[in-house]
Design brief:
408 residues; 7-stranded mixed sheet; 13 helices; 15 strands
Length: 408
């Protein structure tokens, strides 16, 4: 059984409803009177098809709250603690909406999370009706921040930036290897995230000299990829580009391994498992040499490394959902500190002018333009020797890419 964190066991903690047992992470006693606690909604899909990612996101957010409260809370509010109001989006947009309604009724000052693009799109829109600040943890669809919602702020990059970075790095990788890859097949989940990304890739890859043989959508969840892999085997592309969530990604990679389908490269864009220590540990042979352009932590940041140790000491994996949510909570707390208020309008104003740099990501200082953090950027990783190494950009690289994949 994993170690307990805070006063709740992981199992009980993850099953807690948004309002049924809102979690207050207590600060140590301070010599002066504290201000009233600031309620913050933590919205994640901790049940349903996306439950693993949601649970990981919640873990990162709660660790950040624990650290903030242990360090004295919101000092501008007399050491006020931050009270976590937990919400389970149940892996659906409607579930996310329902939880935002409950959080608003509970008087939260802001909401962090959502994870899936479809949940973030819907939940942030609901939050906007109440002028409720909403900090997106992961959702990558660019329409999240192009609708003119003044309450919505995305800390990480959107898939426009991610797709461009992925393609630029793919060109560099392919050129350095003598251009062995010319043909591509794309396998993507069929919600806003996967479909939008596939559309971008279908537009941009041919412009950069790649032939797309086929684009294959699939629903989430999908329990069988045999027919998809048979199509890949029949067309024999140089590259397979998956864009899907964790469970489907693992199943696709394992099915390719079982059917001995080995292209010159598996080059993921936001691959749900490609940059995951859990995947590497549980299925090392299927994971070996897979590349990804995705969210990642700064491997040279001591705070990031300390967080990794803390997470792994709990018996958990250090996944991008953890450090994205951890950073988002710190970002929000910084805004509340600077606003010196739990007033929603003042927090929104503080987020709009944020220059927060105390995160654990390979980003510059935070700068929001129309709700999008201009300092955010993905990195490229590759599974090498049962570990995950950064291969691009050079300033964060910890390993050299292996491409094409060995045929053995």
């Amino acid at each position: 059984m994993p170690r307990q964190f805070s006063s709740l066991s992981r199992r009980r903690f993850l099953q807690t409803s948004a309002l049924g047992a809102a979690t207050l992470v207590h600060a140590p006693a301070v010599p002066r009177a504290q201000g009233a606690a600031v309620k913050v909604g933590l919205l994640h899909p901790v049940s349903g098809a996306l439950s693993y990612s949601g649970q990981q996101g919640r873990l990162g957010a709660v660790i950040a709250l624990e650290e903030l409260n242990a360090a004295g809370g919101i000092k501008a509010l007399g050491g006020a603690t931050i009270e976590a109001v937990l919400g389970d989006a149940q892996s659906t947009p409607d579930g996310g909406n329902a939880e935002v309604e409950k959080m608003n009724a509970a008087g939260v000052a802001a909401v962090v999370g959502g994870y899936a693009s479809s949940i973030c799109l819907s939940a942030s829109q609901t939050a906007a009706r109440y002028d409720l600040p909403y900090v997106v943890d992961v959702g990558v669809v660019d329409s999240i921040v192009t609708r003119g919602l003044k309450n919505t702020f995305r800390f990480g990059p959107g898939f426009g930036v991610i797709a461009k970075t992925a393609i630029d790095n793919l060109i560099t990788l392919n050129d350095q290897a003598g251009k062995p890859a010319k043909t591509v097949m794309i396998v993507h989940e069929d919600s806003a995230f996967g479909s939008g990304l596939a559309k971008l890739l279908n537009t941009q890859l041919p412009e950069r000299g790649f032939q797309i043989l086929e684009t294959i959508p699939h629903p989430t969840p999908t329990r069988d990829f045999n027919n998809v892999v048979l199509k890949i085997k029949a067309q024999n592309p140089d590259l397979v580009i998956p864009a899907n969530y964790y469970n489907e990604y693992v199943l696709l990679a394992r099915t390719m391994q079982q059917q001995r389908v080995r292209p010159k490269g598996i080059y993921s864009v936001l691959g749900g498992a490609a940059s995951s220590y859990k995947f590497v540990k549980e299925f090392p042979e299927a994971a070996q040499y897979i590349m990804d352009c995705n969210h990642w932590f700064d491997p040279k940041n001591q705070k990031a490394l300390a967080l990794r140790k803390k997470v792994e000491d709990k018996g958990e994996f250090y996944t991008y959902e953890v450090y994205m949510n951890y950073s988002c909570v710190l970002l929000l707390a910084d805004a509340i500190e600077r606003a010196a208020s739990a007033d929603r309008a003042k927090i929104i104003s503080a987020l709009e002018t944020s220059t927060f740099a105390g995160h654990v990501m390979p980003y510059g200082a935070t700068k929001f333009v129309n709700g999008q953090n201009q300092g955010a950027a993905p990195v490229n990783t590759q599974v090498l020797g049962n570990d995950i190494q950064v291969i691009f950009p050079a300033e964060f690289a910890s390993g050299k890419p292996v491409f094409p994949m060995p045929r053995a």
